[in-house]
Amino acid sequence: MNSIKTIRRVGVLTGGGDCPGLNAVIRAVTKALILNHDVDVIGFEDGYEGLIENRYRELDWNAVSGILQQGGTILGTSNKADPFNHIIHQDDKLLRIDVSDRVLQNVAALNIDAVVCIGGDGSMTIARKLMDKGLPVVGVPKTIDNDLFGTDYTFGYDTAVSIAAEAIDRIHTTAQSHHRVMLVEIMGRYAGWLTLGAGLAGGADVILIPEIEYDLNVIQKIVEQRSKRGRRFSIIAVAEGAKSLGGELTVQRVIHDSPDKIRLGGISIKLSADIETATNLETRATILGHLQRGGTPTAFDRILATRYGVAAADLVVQGRYGRMVALQGGRIVDVSLEEVGGRTRTVGLDHELLHVARRTGVSLGASA
Ligand code: F6P
Questions:
Q1: Residue of the nearest CA to atom 16 in ligand 1?
Q2: Could you give the number of structural domains in the chain?
């Protein structure tokens, strides 16, 4: 006898920062569930906020048609909402309360059999905690940072790398024409994947990532050597999470009502001043910021997001909850949410891309 419960209604939400490919996942999950299993799909609005406040809309075939190539998320998102740390304002104070029981009640009242949570590390941690409380969940890994445990690629990364690489290409023109040192600051939080990928693709001379503390003397030497050899410009790709030897992270702002309070940013401004002082060469910084998360996903991300969406729909109908779909060695697999939450996948110091960079004369800002 088949003991798998028949699935009739599934909820979908997008949590954390927006990311190219979110709509492609929403579309694939919804279409696969409707077409193959005749399941109703509803979308919660603004991520976990919608689950808490019971804000949702029906997703039928028409609602998800024509959104494959659209950036952002048609459902809205929030990187502040957390049912286990819900912020309320009382007497000018911020209080955190646990409203996860309310979430379970909302889901039960809507007759929802499972929820597909599309998000990054924070969203997967919340999904795992809801699963522990009895809510059937399936995760889909999203983030331009590519820093999620258990998967080789998150969707959104490829698009962000392409945008940042194109920005480096464009910066080259000014660097070359004006004989300047140009820094391009790239997102990625505490992991260097985005900067490493974009730096290699854009032909940066120096790539600075959070995993390798940089030495100003090394950067100065590279820039001066290039100048002496007639290469009178240098391009430096610097991750927002890069730090000098023994130095601190550069924090742009602290958002007190967000579970992940720290927003990085501004290292390129400080470093460009240091390089200019050390080398006497005109040095400028460009912070790419949210440009890297905007606009249409690349074909790779559209395909990956669609594969993830279909795989997530399969996990739901098979009753395989508490899992996150993932890409390993080119194949779609699934991993336990237990393994994923609360961990950051950084660039290993023996990663092949670091060897490739060094072997092609790219400096990583540190001696040897
Ligand atoms: O995690 C994605 C990301 O874009 C990071 O690269 C960046 O540090 C952070 O989000 C920025 O967050 P916000 O949009 O809240 O400023």
A1: 263
A2: 2
Q: Which atom of ligand 1 is nearest to the CA of 292?
A: 4
Which of ligand 1's atoms lies nearest the C-alpha of 187? 6
Structural domain span for residue 324:
4-155+297-339
Q: What is the CATH number of the domain that holds 57?
A: 3.40.50.450
Q: Choose one of 187, 240, 290 to mutate for the ligand 1 pocket test, by most ligand atoms within 8 angstroms of C-beta.
A: 187
CATH number, domain at 258? Answer: 3.40.50.460
Q: In the structure encoding, which two tokens stand for residue 2, read together? A: 């088949």
Q: Which own/partner pairs from 218-226 qualify as long-range (CB within 8 Å, at least 24 positions apart)?
A: 218/363, 218/365, 218/366, 218/367, 219/271, 219/275, 219/363, 219/365, 220/275, 220/278, 220/279, 222/363, 223/181, 223/275, 223/279, 223/281, 224/279
Q: Using CA positions, which residue lies closest to atom 11 of ligand 1? A: 263
Which pTM was predicted? Answer: 0.96
Radius of gyration of the chain (CA): 22
Q: Report the candidate in 103, 111, 109 with the shortest Cα–Cα distance to residue 134.
A: 103
Residue owning the nearest CA to atom 10 of ligand 1? 17
Active-site amino acid positions: 145
Ligand 1: which of 254, 293, 344 to mutate, most ligand atoms within 8 Å of CB?
A: 293
Rounded to 5°, the CA angle 248-193-366 comes to 50
Percent of the chain clearing pLDDT 90 (strictly above): 94
- Contact (CB, 8 A) for 157 and 144: yes
Same domain membership, residue 108 and residue 19: yes
266-277 per-position pLDDT tens digit: 999 999 999 999
Q: Is the pLDDT of residue 2 over 70?
A: no
Rounded distance from Cα 47 to ligand 1 centre (Å) = 16
The answer on 120 and 24 residing in a single domain is: yes
- List residues near ligand 1 (CB under 6 A): 17, 79, 120, 143-145, 187-189, 240, 263-264, 293
What is the arithmetic mean of pLDDT over 62-85?
Answer: 97
Q: Which atom of ligand 1 is nearest to the CA of 120?
A: 1
Average pLDDT over the chain, rounded to whole?
A: 96
Q: Is the pLDDT of residue 5 over 90?
A: no
Ligand 1 centre and the CA of 263: distance in Å?
7
